[in-house]
Amino acid sequence: MNTRRLTACVLAVGLLATVSVRAHHGTSITYEMDKMITVTGTVTEFDFSYPHPALFMDVKDDKGKVMRWGAEFLPTPAALKALGWNRETLKFGDAVILGCHPSKTGNPVCAVQTITINGKAMPLGGGPGGPPPAGGQRGGRQ
Amino acid sequence: MNAKLSLIAVTLFSAVALAQNVQSGQNAKPFDAHDLSGKWVRTSGNQGFSTVPESGRGNAPEAPFTAAGRKAYEKNYPGYGPRANATLRNDPMGTCDPLGIPRNLNAEVVSSHNWWELLQTNDRVIQLFEWHHEFRVIYADGRKLPTVDADLDPKWNGYSVGRWDGDTFVVESVGFDERTWLDKFGYAHSDQMKLQERYRRVDADTLELTMVLTDPEYYTKPWESDRKVFKRNAFQFDKPWDEQIYCVPSEENKFNRLIRDAASGK
Lengths: 142, 266
What we know:
The structure holds 2 protein chains of 2 kinds. Chain A has 2 helices and 7 strands, in the order βαβββαβββ. Chain A is mainly beta. Chain A has one domain (2-122): CATH 2.40.50.140. Chain B is of the alpha+beta class. Chain B has one domain. In chain B, strands 1-2-3-4-5-6-7-8-10 form a 9-stranded mixed barrel. The longest helix of chain B has 20 residues, at 2-21.
């Protein structure tokens, strides 16, 4: 199966962006929520699980070395389903481009803000965490 | 004649009975104030047990800590709020440990994450919590609470009895496991905590809850929660009850190891 992996083209471009930031159970202390990077990679695994789905991908750096990246989605599966997602929206080998909040540690992990899958943009809601809940606040993973 | 009188009497009785259960307002739906059953989602904003400073609710007072209570609180490192700590966080939720009472009721039951459900029988009220697929039994058969001593093993959700006080269902509980937090901000309780919950259905789709915690080991005086408001079936998406919202330890461990701990440097 590894031979089927598309090699990733990686671009990790630091882009300062103004985004709507809301404290989201631990994300604000874990990720640079006022920064966005672009990460281009190839999907190796997608966990469509509660409370926040996770994506793993192969990403090639500018020297051609492949690194494993991880990314978490802030909306829950229920929120993503309302936007047209399901557990097969991301599949092994899909080419993805993420607009992502980088880890404060510099490790290859980020929190997804925008995503393009095989050239098609998929919605993630109006901001971190997706559509606002009825109560205006969220519970979930700490 | 007697039949006519009976019909009139039945009609009047039905109208009165219905009126007793209908709140004012033209579109109010009838409801039974003594029926608390349903799937409830918290819609009031505060995520803490009470409106503590961490809750971001104006000039909220700090908890009435004893020295031991403050020490226990300071050993808890939340992943949320002004005391959030990326590397030391030790919230039991992060390892899928039980949330316990009252946390099952206050912090995590919001759309699009969770809800809780209440079922009633003649002698018990049962609460179902989706996050751990766990249940809590509140005995409503007149029994007394057990004595809290070394023979009583603490339980995650405590031992609970309930009774009706007018249209308010009053639950008294003791025997809690002190490993649970009161809320996501890291407030602690000892195994001596006693909790009173007061549930009142204010209309067909609204349930209110207030709580008073008494724990002389950790708090100098009874500590009252804010008013929690829950709405029936208020999960915001199309197929909410098809979801399986479940804290699975192996999934959580993988997420922590590969995503959250890697991102935070824990």
